Amino acid sequence: MQGEEKSLAQLRKQIDDIDDQIHDLLMQRTEVAGKIGARKGGGGGHMRPGREATVLRRLVARHRGALPKALIVRVWREIFSANTALQGPLAVAVYAPEGTFGYRNLARDHFGWRTPMTAFRSAAQVLEAVRDGKASVGVLPVPHGDETEPWWRNLARDGDGVPRIIARLPFAVIDAPRGDGPEALAIGLAAPEQTDLDHSYLAVETAEVISRSQLKETLTAAGLDGLDIHACDDGGRSLHLVEVEGFVAADDARLTQLLEMSEGRLARARSVGGFAVPLSLEEMSGGAGSGAKR
User: Fold this and answer.
1) Of 6, 171, 207, 247, which residue has the fewest beta carbons closer than 10 angstroms?
2) Spatial contact of 59 and 100, defined as CB atoms under 8 Å apart
3) What's the pTM value of the predicted model, to 2 decimals?
4) pLDDT at 160
5) pLDDT digits (tens, 9 = 90+) for 62-88
6) Domain for residue 290, yes or no?
7) For residues 170 and 105, what is the distance between their CA atoms, to the nearest angstrom?
8) Rg (CA), the chain
């Protein structure tokens, strides 16, 4: 019995030593993040959703052992948020109609429990908070179907102060979709950055009535794989939000090609951001190191 107690004490001592190593590395990581923030000068570029997605994909793919992958994602999301806040302001504006908590919970899981968050009753208020610099990020519903006054039409504007889509929440799918769980897009002034697996959003203004099938055919001809299309009337113009596969930068040559191939049916096409594709249920629930091939 005495030998068993001694063995347990040794194992506990190992855990203490490991905890010290983890703590030392966290402090070291924070110091490095602080140096990065100092070199950037505290500007809006301190937010790196693409970089965060790349790190999480790598960690989940290499994970071994009994510790759930979901916990790895949760721990690192807290680390990301804490270190981002050290490099510059981090505050979140969340769409939260009265009596709802889904989008606030998504935002809290993604941006960390210490990140300041303000709930707004309307999408317009969230957009305004981001535009005015009162929030560095806004969390809004993923578009579903055609709406009369969708929030995304406000992204189809020119200017440096126009928010862009920068992430999709949740980033890791933990449970099988039930159809009633909230999904959100994060918007901000940070420039979208390419990862190894992305989707982008285009705002396409049409010069005449055009069907979804015609628009999709034109997208395909320009080398853009359209996945989902939403439409609305915006001050007398017909505006489409198109989700496409891959990364589309603001100066992507395919946007010019798209207009040329439309033979005058499309008036304007611009990238309004995008997101790193979230980790799938298969990637999160599969065996150790079973990340999907990309």
Assistant:
1) 6
2) no
3) 0.89
4) 77
5) 999 999 999 999 999 999 999 888 888
6) no
7) 10
8) 22
